[in-house]
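#help-structures

NK: newbie question. if I give both the sequence and a SMILES, will the prediction place the ligand too? trying with zinc ion
OV: yes, paste both and it writes out the complex. here, I ran yours:
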Amino acid sequence: MRARAATGSAGATSRTATGAAAAEQAVTGQTATGPAVTRQGATADPAPLPPAPGAEQHVALDFANSELTSRAGRLDLLATPDAATRWLIEHELAPDDAVLYEYCAGRLRELRAQLRVLLASRIDGTLPPAEAVRAVNTALTTAPAASLLHWDEAHGPYRAPAHPADRVAEHAMAAIAADAAELLTGPDGERLAACSASPCNRFLVRTHAARHWCSVRCGDRVRAARAYARRTQQAKRSGE
Ligand SMILES: [Zn+2]
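OV: that's the protein plus ligand as structure tokens.
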């Protein structure tokens, strides 16, 4: 896995972006649905969005954002077993030689749907359905999420996540669920927000109170839409 050589946050960014691009190609190649939506002469988004604020600290947030809607249409980074496998490997939640089947990819997508419900409830201050809480707890208890202790001559003692060849999805879901529980109950839970640049549906951790956009691109779009609305209003007034 070439991309695994990259380390650090910059590496994580490029890994994610590469994965998104690859998945976009995969999805585009496979489905005729999800056409590029254009409006007001806008063109389809030129490149995948970088991870939303907080997504590099919280894999659960990035996981929730693996289903995204943009002007280019809906993009599901877990749409196929191959895409889901790639996503897990890029996020170091599965070994490089992992193979997922559709059944596992489907369970990942189901956990993601429940996680999105939980994040939305946290943001809205509402009580989520018990089913959504249960989904996280099932993932938490089906496999150990903790990194295990290893000890050898070359490295001394170190911790590494368990990556058994079987139950890859269970271990990945346990790690995601553990992070989700921490995110929802920890200090970043207070700063969770949904991107306000329609149609974007990504979640983010607000870096400051005024920030409600997941990316520069979404912020620019909101500003452009406001400017367009202002111009339209002015044109309407002068035409009256
Ligand atoms: Zn956004």
